Amino acid sequence: xxxxxxxxxxxxxxxxxxxxxxxxxxxxxxxxxxxxxxxxxxxxxxxxxxxxxxxxxxxxxxxxxxxxxxxxxxxxxxxxxxxxxxxxxxxxxxxxxxxxxxxxxxxxxxxxxxxxxxxxxxxxxxxxxxxxxxxxxxxxxxxxxxxxxxxxxxxxxxxxxxxxxxxxxxxxxxxxxxxxxxxxxxxxxxxxxxxxxxxxxxxxxxxxxxxxxxxxxxxxxxxxxxxxxxxxxxxxxxxxxxxxxxxxxxxxxxxxxxxxxxxxxxxxxxxxxxxxxxxxxxxxxxxxxxxxxxxxxxxxxxxxxxxxxxxxxxxxxxxxxxxxxxxxxx
Length: 330
Ligand code: ADP
What we know:
- The protein has helices at residues 3-10, 29-34, 46-50, 55-62, 97-134, 140-171, 184-200, 220-236, 283-288, 295-305, and strands at residues 14-18, 24-27, 64-70, 75-85, 88-95, 180-182, 205-210, 216-218, 243-251, 254-261, 309-315, 319-327.
- The chain is of the alpha+beta class.
- The radius of gyration is 25 Å and the shape is elongated.
- The site of adenosine-5'-diphosphate (ADP) has 21 residues, from α8 and α10.
């Protein structure tokens, strides 16, 4: 046996060979164990082994897939990728059950805490509004305190809502999306209109260049969240008098949503980390303007579920550009 085949045999990741008809033709020790394979399985369709229809074409579309296989000895989560070898395939499978379970524990905990916080916060919020009405003509100092409490509870409410949204995005299965044809042109026009009225109060120049009737397959509320987070950020991180340009267009690479601002900008070293939860360049500033630190994490998750990609370019103190690109087939 040569060195390479010896290594493949010892490999902890499972490797299966699959022919043009999508039948399994061979496997090494790790794959035998991961998929509980026996000699009689040779020649079976990979779709039957993993319990997924059109498995190979799904892998070709998405690059890799995570699947939980319900075998006798408890459930196993595998991440799988495909290599093409002429007319044949090699399927590489890694057991990620342990990290998957830990991840799920963390996600469930965050979702439960957020859910539990929602009701008391709504009650507090309601009572503050009532007190403000009751003491409307009274002590200015008391009203000031009530306004501060209200701002802080609003912040907590936004945080809880964003955490819940993020955990819903993580929990819902990635593929297939409950696809609908979304009139993105209309959606973006609405977002810009709302922002101009709600946040900006005419303090920014808004330029929009939106290709009409350019649709996308996807989930409208998710796309709305992602796009409005980016426009809201542009407004928040651009001082008065700045310009915000919003574009939606198609070219030979796909469809693109672009938000460009002439705001405070971001230094290069921060850019790769911006989509991490609670990562902020300036914590104090973000909190003061009502940021939750979760906006770009939400954008990232929504794009992931729409096979989209986020590209951030920015120059410190000159401005930033956030571009969401969706592949052509979408
Ligand atoms: P936040 O609620 O803090 O805005 P986000 O996840 O939306 O959270 O953004 C993360 C961080 O990225 C922000 O705290 C800010 O430092 C930076 N950021 C996001 N958008 C912009 C922008 N348009 N211009 C400058 N900085 C930005």
